[in-house]
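Write out the 3D structure for:
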Amino acid sequence: MLKILNLKAKILSINYEHPNQEHFYTGLSNGYIIKWNSKTGEQVLNFNLVSSSLEKNKKVADNYIWAVKSINEKYLASGDSFGTLKIWDAKFGILLKEIKEHLADITTIEINYDYNTLYFSGADSLICAVQLQEDEFILTSKYRGQSHDIAKLCLLK
């Protein structure tokens, strides 16, 4: 049971990879990301949103977090309604990198089985890949194979 007090936002996304995982994450309709303790259901951390990355006349509260994805509990990736992929330090909630390639909402993030490549897409049908190379996330490819929204990505082994 999550212990949410006075939460005036809706949970739009959740990342809970494995029952043995110590934490899980939720993306909210007010632009916040919350890290939770998997055992107690209590909030551990609210991620620090950086308003400098927001476009002019847009507020953090107008930003929906449509996708969150944990990367070995060391990093967290989030996709939002401003079309920005953000990479966070999962322990401290510090923004490490922003990638602004999309013109519309990012609705899905998936990671490969080696935990070194992220794929993300959304309402503008662009699929992008970011690779983790020596603790740095680098945009490696972009592909638009269709004109429809992409709601979910799935990687097959």
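The two ends are 33 Å apart (CA to CA).
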